[in-house]
Design brief:
Strand content: 15-25%
Number of helices: 11
Number of domains: 1
CATH architecture: 3-Layer(aba) Sandwich
Order of helices and strands: HHHEHEHEEEEHEEHEEEEHEHHHE
Bound molecules: S-adenosylmethionine
CATH class: Alpha Beta
Helix content: 25-40%
CATH topology: Rossmann fold
Length: 304
């Protein structure tokens, strides 16, 4: 069995797979995902969606797909932020695991990507790092069943991530695909000792080597931006911290602090939520954590 098939079973086997068995929960500790940090990430995304909706001429129907939606937290936080595009918004949570789909309470819920074409935005936060990949020695031999020894130099071939990107672009009549993940390049990964760029997590801790106790730990790989660029070069690339600032995180934090100062004496919930924006922003912008994730965007132009 090649590594891709192994990873497929370890993560997505209908009974024992990490994401199906209910063990996944949230990525914990330092490795919590941006939407799970709190409502601020969804509020920033809401502003980005408004900008794109306006650029597209405020269409009556504006579809947003959250690909690899997990329990649908992003949908809830965007809805809570009430972006201007809300009346036009058709939100589709796409999640292959039934355990994840059970959490979808806002928007539609689907196990696979919708058929296109539609105008809108497709977002994938920490999806591509979880898609099965093949492993090769630097001389091009597939690793297959062999367990490589530490210090070996390997490279990933992320065919499923590339296929996902090609599909996402093809179902957009026009709009944007937004991929957010920890990214590097095939060359950078080949230069680093295995398995530094292919990580496992169990609970809140780094896990064991990927072959240990399959189904009990997450397996994730840095996303090779050069391989995605081979499908189509991104229109824009930024660190998550820069991208969040472009879409107004600082204004949202300032508003929150002002609300906190105005309401602090009463200790009301809005004031508390305002104060927590500062703490959330710190995690989302952290230059050694979520802030250094890469946001790669592909615009698909209007065919007319
Ligand atoms: C690390 S979680 C990220 C969840 C969410 N996007 C977040 O940021 O909190 C990755 C999710 O992608 C889902 N997934 C993996 N492959 C998928 C696919 N081909 N289609 C849809 N969902 C997929 C997994 O089941 C898992 O719930």
């Amino acid at each position: 069995m090649g590594f891709a098939e192994f990873m497929e079973r370890a993560l997505y086997d209908p009974v024992l797979g990490f994401y199906e068995s209910g063990r996944a929960g949230r990525r914990g500790g330092h490795f919590i995902t941006s939407p799970e940090v709190g409502p601020l990430f969804g509020a920033v995304l809401g502003r980005m969606l408004d900008r794109r909706w306006q650029e597209l001429g405020q269409p009556d129907s504006f579809t947003v797909v959250d690909a690899g939606a997990g329990p649908g937290t992003l949908a809830r936080t965007v809805a809570k932020a009430q972006p201007c595009c809300m009346p036009a918004l058709r939100w589709i949570n796409v999640e292959r695991s039934a355990a994840g789909r059970a959490g979808h309470t806002v928007g539609e819920s689907a196990a696979a990507m919708p058929a296109g074409p539609f105008a809108g935005v497709i977002v994938a936060n920490e999806l591509l790092d979880n898609l099965p990949l093949s492993l090769f020695d630097v001389d091009g031999t597939e690793v297959g069943d062999r367990r490589p020894s530490p210090e070996t130099r390997l490279t990933p071939r992320q065919s499923q991530a590339c296929e996902w990107l090609a599909q996402a672009r093809s179902i957009l009549d026009h709009g944007t695909v937004v991929v957010i993940d920890y990214m590097s390049t095939t060359e950078e990964m080949a230069a680093r000792a295995w398995p530094e760029w292919l990580r496992t997590y169990r609970g809140h801790e780094r896990g064991d080597d990927p072959w240990t106790a399959p189904g009990t730990q997450d397996i994730t790989c840095e996303v090779a931006l050069d391989q995605l660029s081979g499908v189509s070069p991104p229109t824009r690339i930024a660190d998550q911290a820069v991208w969040l600032r472009t879409h107004g995180i600082d204004e949202l934090v300032a508003e929150g602090i002002a609300a906190w100062q105005a309401g602090a004496a009463h200790g009301d919930l809005a004031a508390l939520a305002g104060r927590s924006r500062g703490i959330e922003a710190e995690a989302l912008l952290d230059p050694s954590g979520l802030g250094k994730f890469t946001v790669a965007e592909w615009d698909v132009p209007d065919p007319q």
